[in-house]
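Action item from last meeting closed. Structure (852 res):
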């Protein structure tokens, strides 16, 4: 508390050397704590991979350490920023309380939602919305699968429904009596009583209001009367036990009968068949929690089921599609003949065989009544294929992506609407037993047939196996989308790539760390990932098919069927363990990253929803403060050294710890007195022969007139008046402000042996000429920086480049390059009269850098 009051009492200006050192010490500590927090998050991601055992004590310990670390990060940010971000403490406390409530088994505030939009559901909240609907929500938002819009009435709403009608004690008593009775007749009587009590109960007003609001909105945007499907999503369903066909679903329901249908689905918790299923599988616990999913009815042209592994011939690498006209009841209940298609599981995914049945009946949704009705199929249509080969292959493509995402063969319900569009209605693990289950030890001989392209290079960030065609990210660019199922290959990790991961089968990055933001997102999305590979971009060819083995850190040429089958058949029973489910729920408040773009409008405190968001926000704000918001020029009682150089740079140096060899009372120092590693290597590049242009600049009339309207004493990007050139240094740190004629350069960086601490922030603004030439120089700088792995942003003549997590030799080279770049581009805007000039000078610099 004393520290908190001390922080609030601080002023917004740096007064002396002591305070200056405090700010920079705080910044270095923030970087240290940032890396530590990301390591904790990475460890949690490893535990959720299923490869490590853990208990509740581990969860308590790691969450306590993480909370303490994140709190310290926020403290340090406020020391640096002079308390600009004190509201972040409240966010930390809210998340800490939510995590602790989960650990104590309390219903947390975030789970008190009566209704959850489908696009907000994923398996981290499966205990609120059921695994069936949580899986659909995850497929919709993360994988981009064609899942209809919808919402879920939560298990919390069901519990409140029981409580408000005083049903909980009564239902518990009925279940207890049924458990102790062996008479089938008595079972039926007890469960009939439970169902009648539920059907006659009143719907809570809050639930009624929320649902009616959504249905009214849906009705306003439909040209035809709204009809709905309500599907069970019990908390036990679609997990270790499928409960397939056990709970009720209500089809073709009008909005007026919505709540009757809802109660029918909830009442199916107590149906005799569910009770027998639970007893047969020895499922313990009381069946008193039901979430219900709701979607608009899809006008079904064809429906069916896809098994991503043939259920009766599991030894064959074949998918099986069953299809019938109309709604899928014919297929899932086996009430009529169906067409069947066998599709190969290799990358070509071709139709191997088709068996077209004579289909005499189908299920349809009549407009004048609710529910489905069985109709005759027109005689001339009975022997027609219900599914084209193209539609079957499109379905198989999605099946492949879904099974890779969940690392398990899938049982998928689907429908084609009256326009032939595919929708996924359900996806759950396919229960099959392989006679010859693949073991890792059995793979060695068969894998010898495949060529290894990359062997044990880099570090595994997310374990798993994925395959697909290579997509190499263009240097410095982030596309809006990438091909579905590709192996994404990037020069370096960036959190801005996070939205692309849902479409990737695997990730390879030449530069990065398992503690990177992107690596955390890869673990969250279950995308096999290897980072810090070094030469994936130069080794792999766009379009070539590769298999990424992120279990053994290998990349194979081609589609390695044996490995992919191994990935599908490995045991995953850990997902039903209570500790795993608890950690998965908590991970949503810990590792989810929503703040991926620091330039986005929602990159602010109010948008921080997890510890990961806070870490990302705090790091970005700290860099901005150090790089631009702090005024170092008015610091009193500080030794300013004048650095004597063979260039008219007029550079002053402030040493705050080991950056300058002790020079006593000297005011002027030489380059040999500099001990700051980043400044040394930058000066080495800047002082290289021929880099600094000394000839007079030839201004044309337009540039001359522009110079009259622009003053060399212009303001920097923050709006502050520019001061003499200044470098603040330690042995491994540099904060450099350069005002060279009509433009402004800023470099903030750390260069040391610990690669996780290494980073460079580069900013450039201004010039003597008109905006078109200054923009060309910005373009030239951008292209050069991208060539050297910087993440670059440009706006007019402003250029910002960022680089993180590099080995010591590489970041030294980058600092040398920046020194050359500063000298090379000085006054270069005058020479950039056309785009051809920009390309010429860009190539000239890159060629000279190679020679250097």
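Sequence:
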């Amino acid at each position: 508390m004393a520290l908190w009051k001390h922080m609030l009492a601080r002023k917004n200006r740096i007064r002396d050397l002591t305070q200056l050192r405090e700010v920079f010490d705080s910044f270095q500590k923030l970087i240290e704590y940032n890396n530590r927090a990301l390591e904790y998050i990475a460890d949690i991601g490893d535990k959720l991979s299923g490869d490590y055992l853990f208990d509740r004590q581990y969860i308590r310990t790691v969450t306590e350490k993480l909370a303490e670390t994140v709190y310290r990060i926020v403290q340090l940010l406020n020391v640096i920023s002079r308390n600009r971000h004190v509201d972040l403490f409240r966010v930390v406390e809210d998340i800490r309380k939510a995590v602790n409530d989960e650990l104590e088994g309390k219903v947390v505030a975030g789970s008190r939602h009566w209704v959850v939009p489908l696009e907000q559901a994923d398996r981290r909240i499966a205990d609120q919305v059921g695994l069936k609907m949580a899986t659909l929500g995850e497929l919709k938002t993360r994988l981009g699968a064609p899942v209809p819009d919808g919402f879920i009435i939560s298990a919390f709403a069901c519990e409140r429904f029981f409580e408000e009608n005083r049903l909980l004690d009564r239902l518990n008593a009925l279940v207890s009596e049924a458990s102790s009775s062996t008479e089938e007749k008595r079972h039926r009587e007890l469960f009939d009583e439970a169902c009648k009590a539920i059907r006659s109960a009143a719907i809570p007003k809050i639930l009624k209001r929320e649902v009616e609001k959504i249905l009214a909105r849906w009705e306003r945007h439909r040209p035809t009367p709204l009809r709905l499907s309500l599907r069970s999503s019990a908390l036990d369903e679609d997990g270790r036990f499928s409960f397939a066909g056990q709970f009720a679903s209500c089809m073709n329901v009008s909005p007026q009968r919505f709540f009757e249908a809802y109660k029918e689905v909830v009442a199916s918790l107590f149906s005799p068949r569910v009770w027998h299923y639970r007893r047969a599988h020895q499922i313990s616990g009381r069946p008193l929690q039901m979430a219900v999913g709701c979607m608009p009815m899809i006008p079904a042209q064809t429906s069916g089921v896809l098994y991503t592994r043939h259920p009766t011939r599991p030894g064959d690498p074949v998918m099986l599609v069953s299809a019938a006209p109309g709604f899928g009841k014919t297929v899932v209940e086996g009430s009529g003949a169906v067409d069947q298609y066998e599709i190969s599981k290799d990358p070509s995914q071709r139709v191997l065989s088709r068996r077209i049945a004579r289909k005499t009946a189908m299920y349809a949704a009549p407009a004048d009544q609710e529910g489905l009705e069985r109709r005759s199929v027109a005689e001339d249509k009975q022997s027609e294929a219900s599914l084209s080969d193209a539609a079957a292959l499109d379905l198989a493509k999605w099946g492949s992506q879904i099974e890779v995402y969940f690392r398990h063969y899938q049982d998928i319900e689907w429908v084609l609407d009256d326009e032939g569009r595919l929708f996924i209605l359900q996806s759950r693990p396919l229960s099959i037993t392989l006679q010859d289950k693949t073991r890792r030890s059995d793979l060695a001989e068969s894998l010898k047939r495949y060529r290894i392209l990359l062997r044990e290079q880099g570090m595994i960030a997310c374990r798993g196996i994925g395959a697909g065609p290579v997509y190499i990210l263009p240097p410095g660019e982030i596309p809006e989308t990438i091909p579905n199922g590709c192996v994404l290959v990037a020069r370096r990790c960036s959190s801005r790539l996070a939205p692309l991961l849902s479409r990737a089968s695997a990730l390879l990055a030449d530069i990065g760390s398992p503690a990177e933001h992107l690596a955390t997102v890869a673990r969250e999305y279950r995308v096999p990932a290897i980072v810090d590979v070094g030469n994936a971009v130069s080794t792999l060819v766009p379009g070539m098919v590769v298999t990424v083995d992120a279990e053994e850190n290998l990349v194979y040429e081609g589609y390695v069927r044996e490995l992919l089958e191994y990935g599908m058949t490995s045991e995953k029973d850990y997902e039903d363990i209570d500790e795993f489910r608890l950690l998965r729920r908590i991970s949503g408040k810990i590792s989810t990253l929503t703040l991926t773009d620091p330039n986005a409008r929602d990159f602010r405190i109010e948008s921080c929803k997890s510890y990961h968001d806070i870490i990302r926000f705090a790091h970005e704000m700290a860099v901005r403060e150090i790089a631009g918001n702090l005024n170092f020029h008015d610091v009193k009682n500080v030794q300013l050294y004048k650095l004597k150089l063979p260039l008219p740079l007029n550079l002053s140096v402030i040493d705050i710890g080991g950056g300058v060899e002790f020079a006593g009372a000297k005011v002027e120092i030489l380059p040999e007195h500099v001990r700051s590693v980043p400044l040394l290597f930058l000066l080495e590049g800047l002082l290289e022969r021929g880099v600094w242009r000394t000839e007079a600049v030839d201004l044309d009339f337009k540039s001359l007139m522009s110079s009259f309207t622009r003053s060399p004493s212009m303001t920097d990007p923050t709006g502050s008046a520019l001061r003499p050139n200044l470098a603040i240094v330690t042995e491994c740190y540099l904060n450099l402000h350069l005002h060279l004629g009509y433009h402004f350069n800023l470099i903030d960086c750390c260069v040391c042996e610990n690669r996780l601490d290494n980073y460079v922030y580069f900013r450039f603004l201004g010039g003597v000429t008109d905006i078109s030439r200054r923009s060309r120089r910005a373009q030239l700088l951008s292209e050069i920086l991208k060539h050297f792995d910087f993440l670059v942003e440009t706006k007019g003549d402003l250029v910002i480049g960022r680089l993180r997590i590099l080995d010591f030799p590489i970041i030294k080279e980058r600092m040398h390059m920046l020194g050359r770049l500063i000298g090379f581009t000085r006054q270069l805007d005058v020479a950039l009269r056309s785009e051809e000039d920009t390309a010429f000078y860009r190539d000239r610099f890159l060629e000279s850098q190679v020679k250097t």
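Note appended to the action item: The first strand starts at residue 115 and ends at 117.
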